[in-house]
Design brief:
By secondary structure, the protein is an alpha/beta fold. It has 18 helices and 13 strands. Helix 9 runs parallel beside helix 10. It starts with 5 loop residues before the first helix and ends in an 8-residue tail after the last helix. Keywords: Repeat.
């Protein structure tokens, strides 16, 4: 290996203190000077560092954390080119899991302070509390490499939410934050709404199943009127005690002004036809939203009439989720008419469990014959008759509808065609993602495969 200038070597050896983008530049320099082997030899070994920190702090080792760090140490090429996401999910079925506690998180964070190549941290389904949130908040204030943080379904409450949200005021690297399932409540959600007024880096925020309420939704909508960085937000299942749909009105007003949001989840908002009409009015003026999730609401065929009219004009929406509403045959026909004659942008439609019978389902299948852009459709949970089974069987046999783009598969018994359910859907891995392979298929999560908003989203 040829000699290089001392100053150049020193620049390379700063790897453990550099962030993601700087790290890539450093690696390119290292390759240029043929010293990548020297650089890797001086950067920390995650597992050995973890063992040492546990001894120094007098903390017992968490065998699952140790296993994940050992596996990460083996992926030298990934670490030095793309960075690595540590998947320490407490619901793993592959190896025995000792869930991460507040104390074990403190040890892990001490290790990661010198590991700039760790760009993602998945800590879902563990037992972290507000004390663990305090540790994570301090880490977020110091760290300059983390792009993805998943804390879904821990035991973080209002005070923990406050600490994390305030840490994000000054953080300039985190792109994707998942607080899903932590019962932070209305007050905790308000801290994240306030954070959105200050933070200009975060691109995706998930506050689904967090027990947020009316004031938090209104404050979040107000923040998104001005925020230019957030591209995807999940506000599923708030606790609402009003039938006035004022939150939907505020979200609709936000959509008129917002020019950056790509993905919006409003599942379980008790939304009725009035709310859908307000959203549709706003989307005539919006040219960026690609994924609209209205699943598990109270939308009927009258509400879908507004969506049908919108689809005749809208040239942006790619994914529409109407799962678990009650649009019935009339609603399905409104959609099919718009898709067959006008819209050539929508790629994915979910009408699962909408009390649709053969008339409406056949109309949707006919629309797919005309509309070649609509590639994924999910229909399970409706009323299948023989005409429906035959229509979708023909779509699949002729190759118009791929099996990985729908949730039904035809089979024949005694000369009659039936449809069996496939385990496919728009958000198949929203609550659970395999730790042993990367989810890329459209049937697994269409938001990632079709309307991904960035590398980490």
């Amino acid at each position: 290996m040829r000699q290089i200038e001392h100053s150049k070597l020193l620049a390379v050896l700063q790897c453990r203190r550099n962030g993601g983008q700087t790290l890539e530049v450093t690696v390119r320099k290292a390759k240029q000077f043929n010293v990548i082997e020297q650089v890797m030899s001086v950067c920390p070994d995650l597992h050995q560092h973890y063992v040492q920190v546990c001894q120094n702090l007098g903390q017992p080792e968490n065998p699952f954390i140790a296993h994940v760090l050992q596996e990460a140490d083996k992926n030298d090429e990934i670490i030095w080119t793309k960075g690595v996401t540590l998947k320490i999910a407490g619901n793993s079925n592959l190896v025995p899991v000792q869930r991460v506690t507040d104390d074990s998180l403190q040890v892990l964070v001490s290790v990661l302070r010198t590991a700039a190549f760790v760009t993602g941290l998945d800590l879902r389904y563990n037992v972290l509390t507000d004390a663990g949130a305090k540790t994570m908040a301090t880490f977020l204030q110091e760290n300059s490499s983390l792009r993805y943080l998943n804390l879904m379904f821990n035991n973080i409450g209002k005070s923990g939410a406050e600490l994390i949200a305030k840490a994000l005021h000054g953080n300039e690297t985190l792109l994707h934050m998942r607080m899903t399932g932590n019962k932070i409540g209305e007050e905790g959600g308000m801290f994240f709404a306030s954070m959105l007024q200050i933070n200009s880096t975060l691109e995706k925020l998930d506050l689904g199943d967090c027990d947020i309420g009316v004031q938090c939704l209104i404050a979040t909508a107000s923040a998104l009127n001005l925020n230019k960085s957030v591209k995807a937000i999940n506000l599923n299942r708030p606790l609402l005690f009003s039938q006035e749909e004022e939150t939907t009105v505020h979200l609709a007003l936000m959509l008129k002004n917002n020019s950056s949001l790509v993905e919006l989840h409003l599942c379980k908002h008790e939304m009725k036809n009035f709310g859908v009409e307000r959203l549709c009015e706003a989307l005539y003026e919006n040219s960026t939203l690609r994924y609209l999730d209205l699943a598990c609401n109270k939308i009927t065929s009258d509400g879908v009439k507004f969506l049908g009219k919108l689809l005749k004009w809208n040239q942006t929406l790619q994914i529409l989720d109407l799962n678990a509403n009650r649009i019935e045959d009339d609603g399905a026909i409104y959609l099919s008419q718009a898709l067959a004659l006008y819209n050539r942008t929508l790629q994915v439609l979910s009408v699962v469990s909408n009390n649709i019978s053969g008339k409406g389902l056949v109309a949707l299948s006919d629309a797919m014959r005309t509309n070649t852009e609509l590639s994924c459709i999910y229909i399970w949970g409706n009323k299948f008759d023989e005409a429906t089974c035959r229509a979708f069987s023909e779509l699949i046999q002729m190759g118009r509808l791929k099996l990985n783009c729908t949730d039904v598969e035809p089979y024949e018994v005694d000369g009659h065609i039936y449809l069996a359910e496939l385990s496919h859907g728009l958000q198949k891995h929203y609550y659970w993602t395999p730790t042993y392979w990367v989810v890329t298929e459209k049937d697994a999560n269409a938001s990632l495969a079709i309307a991904a908003v960035s590398e980490y989203l």
